[in-house]
């Protein structure tokens, strides 16, 4: 009788598990019922804990955000991050310029410089993503067969660039180590990109960095092109 009570209690607990989070194999994108382990332990976690684990670049936190949350801020986040990067470049450009003339034409030129920096940052990020897509499609074509696979990977990459938001505090509290902080932010964004690729396509640790390496090569190629055109980047 005691055994039957325990079985009924166990069944009642299992019945409260959401259907899309039943059970699955580790690193599996499709729900499975063979391993008898919860898909996503973060389903009951506070959003702050999830965010902290995402900042720590934990794969399971990334997996929860990408597959078990409904986030539709990819475009807005991308634009805001690009604005942050454009502002940093524009500020550095103004620091290098010694012209303090308050003339309206000078103000217009400075405003145009900001728009130009935003366009350059957008083209660089686009070339970086294109390099990643081309590399992954060439190395693992079976992972990117459908249009939905490309869209999911693009969303993951856009979300993983959230580290660029740290550029603004780095400039507000400017000090002698600001260039070092900017370098650390760049490394953090690349690590986030690597985790996003790894989680989305269920890859090992090497292939995402391989794709990021070729993405950086293409991005630097665009930078060299702008420099040959005589533009300050």
Automatic annotation (TrEMBL):
It is a multi-pass membrane protein. Its main location: endoplasmic reticulum. It is found in: Endoplasmic reticulum membrane. InterPro entries: Arv1. The keyword Oxidoreductase does not apply. One of its GO terms (biological process) is sphingolipid metabolic process. The chain crosses the membrane at residues 117-138, 150-173, 206-226. Keywords: Endoplasmic reticulum, Lipid metabolism, Lipid transport, Membrane, Transmembrane, Transmembrane helix, Transport. GO terms for cellular component: cortical endoplasmic reticulum; endoplasmic reticulum membrane; Golgi apparatus. Belongs to the ARV1 family. Mediator of sterol homeostasis involved in sterol uptake, trafficking and distribution into membranes. This is Protein ARV. It comes from Cyanistes caeruleus. The lineage of its organism: Eukaryota, Metazoa, Chordata, Craniata, Vertebrata.
